[in-house]
Amino acid sequence: MQWFEQTSSRPAVKPSQTRGLSSLLAFPPALPAPLVGPGCACHPGRVAGEWKNWSGSVQCSPRRQHRPRDADEVATILRRAHERGGTVRPLGAGHSSMPLVATDDELVSLERMTGVLAVDAAAGTAEVLPGTPMDELGAQLVERGVAIDNYGDVDYQAIAGAIGTGTHGSGARLGNLSSILVGGTLVTGTGEAVRFTRDGHDASADLGQDALLPAAQVSLGALGIFTSLTLRVRPAYELHRTNWMTHIDWVLEHFHELVEANRCFDFYWYPRSDLAQVRMLNEPGDEPGIRPPGELRREETGPSYEILPNDRHLRFEEMEHMLPLDPELRAFREVRERVKAKHRTRVGWRVLVRTIAADDAMLSGAQGRPTMTIALLHNASLPHEHYFGDMEPLLLEHGGRPHWGKKHTMRAAQLAPLYLRWNEFARVREALDPDGVLRNEHLSELLIGSSEGA
Ligand SMILES: Cc1cc2nc3c(=O)[nH]c(=O)nc-3n(C[C@H](O)[C@H](O)[C@H](O)COP(=O)(O)OP(=O)(O)OC[C@H]3O[C@@H](n4cnc5c(N)ncnc54)[C@H](O)[C@@H]3O)c2cc1C
């Protein structure tokens, strides 16, 4: 039994090696599955099989699994599903811990639609395909002299999947990954391809001219399937990362200063000690004077896309909430007290605190407010329900909005009041997927409410 967490350092692992490992972790072995019916148009013979997510807590048996090669094949899959009254769920790298992609009908992996299509350095944009893994995205962009602003904790996701749930890293002046989406093409629940930009969109449905981008930015695969995405990029840059081990009290005392002074800053507290690991990332030559007292564990400089993410080899479950940024860290202090009082005999995994800039995406956890996040982790092979169940109400009391891709128990009636633009998103969803082709049971509970069903 793994009661304690071990994290591993990234430096020796090249991106290509990381991808190979993560692919093994993320996907069940490629089918050959038993042939149980006629194959799909885009991948004849690839019909049925089991699917499970990265942590193993979400499993399903799709009737069909598709791996389209282009937007036309995606449109055909959706149009046919619409005609027969079926349902379709788009799949990224399968790293979400909620059943967002689970289906017993049609599952569409975008793993064959990868790569950077075009970069317009002058406009600061890049057009990319939806299945592009985050590490490949970084490497391909840097070859063209550009990079994205930030990364999450790992780079195993596919870009459309990461954007789909509002995946974020840390940095009070940096938005989540969804906030760099500035345009793209979405194939809707009726099989219609809709092109959207910052300036509007070409949907025949009446959405309001500027509604699609802020709806699409965090859309859980509920509006359609992205077949291309236009991302905001900047000139490629290097980062210098330092990892410190220090006393948690020092971090709490200097939290505001650390947030303000660093481009990216986060900290982990380890429940069975008073130690915290502090990560600070800045452009070389732009480092702040503040240095934690304690041990400098690691330090590295390199291309941003290699320095920002970590490697995570042990599987875990996680609950994370986005809360209003509070320099006093009141929510974290309460979390810490409760973990010490009730949970740390069974839980040794880290509690992680990060920040995100405010944005305007309708379902973003950072919508309308500078944000801090608190994440609780636990070994995937141990029960997490008691721990997460006890902490969720506390995070909600402090204004928390749950991460869509991590464990939570929230449903539409509780979620709606937390999002200022909830009803706008519902209108866009009804216009783009009027017959619920892109729903599954979980999305129905999440976005509509049980009374209206799947
Ligand atoms: C080890 C690990 C580390 C993580 N670290 C972080 C972190 O630092 N920060 C953070 O915020 N989260 C983090 N997460 C959560 C993770 O980033 C999100 O759950 C993310 O959405 C997973 O991306 P994915 O490519 O695996 O997508 P999936 O989980 O496969 O799908 C996510 C959503 O995107 C939709 N989708 C996928 N492709 C498309 C498409 N082409 N068109 C439309 N919709 C689509 C799916 O339907 C689904 O709703 C982590 C998860 C793990 C397992």
* Helix content bin: 25-40%
The CATH class of the largest domain turns out to be: Alpha Beta
Percent of residues in beta strands: 15-25%
The name of the CATH topology of the largest domain is Alpha-Beta Plaits
Number of E strands: 21
Distance between the termini: 39 Å
Strand order of the largest sheet: 17-14-16-15-19-20-18-21
Shape: globular
- Radius of gyration computed on alpha carbons: 21 Å
Number of helical segments with 4 or more residues = 12
Structural write-up:
There is one protein chain. With 454 residues, the chain is α+β, with helices and mostly antiparallel strands. The protein folds into three domains: 38-109, Uridine Diphospho-n-acetylenolpyruvylglucosamine Reductase, domain 2; 116-235 and 416-452, Uridine Diphospho-n-acetylenolpyruvylglucosamine Reductase, domain 3 (2-Layer Sandwich), CATH 3.30.465.10; 239-412, Alpha-Beta Plaits. 25% of the residues lie in helices and 24% in strands. The chain is built from twelve helices and 21 strands. An eight-stranded antiparallel β-sheet has the order 17-14-16-15-19-20-18-21. Strand 6 and strand 7 form a beta hairpin. Helix 8 (330-343) runs antiparallel to helix 9 (385-397). The longest helix has 14 residues, at 71-84. Residues 54, 89-96, 100-101, 110, 130, 152-154, 157-158, 160-162, 164-165, 167-168, 220-221, 225-226, 312, 403, 405 line the site of flavin-adenine dinucleotide (FAD). The site of flavin-adenine dinucleotide has 32 residues, from strand 4, helix 4 and strand 12.
